[in-house]
Design a protein that fits this description.
alpha/beta, 7-stranded parallel sheet, 16 strands
Length: 368
């Protein structure tokens, strides 16, 4: 019997990348959804009859419940997740259907993790934060942590060129992440950090080289300390290419009044202006992504650093690989872990390495 996969928000750039990955690596029948037949017009999938489209608004509870009941796996790609409740996850648990998502915000991650016991009792595997960052980045950290006798510090740095090929959603996510100070695990205690502060120059592989990154509120800021209790510091920093976008974002974070940045219309205005700018700059900056994971700790009685780097030419495609690989493992029965988990707690390193290799994604490692 053919597996049926429902991708909510599947006509967006990320959702369509997930669908394309699944169509390439599985035989599943894929249904992608959008709020109207025009949603995501122009997004193409070279997968023939394996993919079908369903008009579905997440507010249509009865139709959503029916679509989930007819599926073996639900993939939630309908961001931004800052505004989402956990209704889709809750419905999946009630219908005993496995669930994964590309969520990327602390508030949603916290809501989802509250359903852990219910999912475990229902035998449902729910894996959240599965894209590129968070997602592949978290598995890179796990891969690094496992090299140590006693890991002590995690430093994650992300860099996105222009729009990243992810459309306007990545702009919304960036500006929404500037709204509030957030807690970070530093030197064994939770400390308040200002978003887009403490610029740091990080050396990424070519073509990025030395680039500026800033504190940014990501779910892994608090899921990684939970997954790896011996770690005393977790740093998550983000930056853009070209660099002048960083300075514009810094202004939005530190100069604009906070009450203004917390208005939805302001987020939409800034997102559309930024997206218009990247329509031009993408032509020379590209739409790639770089992830750098640095783990520091004790190995054989000495302090050591294990650094991992990944570069991909298309951010949306890389996100599709991260989510699609986990979907593939669930469909094949190779990954089963009832409950709700961030990806670093659910995905074993050997399976991560195998799926990345099968997708031609190379992660380079270096000790120092």
């Amino acid at each position: 019997m053919t597996d049926r996969v429902l991708i909510l928000g599947g006509r967006g750039r990320i959702g369509s990348s997930v669908a394309q990955d699944l169509a390439t690596h599985t035989q599943a029948q894929i249904t992608i959804t959008g709020r109207s037949a025009e949603t995501g017009k122009g997004v193409s999938l070279s997968s023939g009859g394996q993919v079908e489209f369903l008009v579905l608004d997440l507010a249509e509870i009865d139709r959503l419940r029916e679509a989930i009941a007819n599926s073996n796996l639900v993939i939630h790609c309908a961001g931004p997740f800052h505004y989402r409740d956990a209704n889709v996850l809750e419905t999946c648990i009630a219908q005993r259907v496995n669930y994964i998502d590309v969520s990327d915000h602390r508030s949603y991650t916290s809501k989802a993790l509250n359903y852990h016991q219910q999912a475990a009792a229902a035998g449902v595997t729910a894996i959240i934060n599965t894209g590129i960052f968070p997602g592949i980045s978290n598995s890179m950290v796990r891969q690094g942590v496992e090299q140590f006798d006693n890991p002590e510090k995690i430093h994650l740095s992300y860099l996105v060129s222009g729009s990243g090929g992810a459309g306007i959603t990545v702009m919304r996510t960036t500006f929404l992440g500037l709204q509030h100070p957030f807690e970070a695990w530093i030197n064994g205690k939770w400390q308040i950090v200002k978003p887009y502060s403490e610029r740091e120059i990080v050396n990424f592989p070519s073509p990025y080289e030395d680039s500026g990154v800033y504190w940014f509120d990501m779910p892994e800021t608090f899921t990684l300390p939970k997954a790896f209790p011996s770690v005393k510091t977790v740093i998550t920093k983000f930056g853009s290419v070209p660099d002048f976008y960083n300075h514009l974002t810094w202004i939005a974070a530190h100069i604009f009044p906070k009450w203004l940045m917390q208005r939805r219309y302001m987020i939409e205005f800034l997102s559309h202006v930024s997206h218009s700018m990247t329509d031009f700059t993408d032509n020379f900056s590209g739409i790639g992504v770089a992830v750098r994971s640095e783990v520091t700790g004790q190995k054989n009685g000495k302090l050591a650093v294990f650094c991992s780097n990944l570069v991909h030419e298309n951010t949306a495609t890389a996100s599709g690989c991260g989510t699609g690989s986990i979907a593939q493992l669930l469909l094949e029965g190779k990954l089963k872990k009832p409950g709700v988990f961030a990806v670093e707690e659910a995905l074993p390193t050997d399976l991560f390495e195998h799926t990345m290799q099968s997708r031609g994604i190379k992660i380079h490692h270096k000790w120092s």
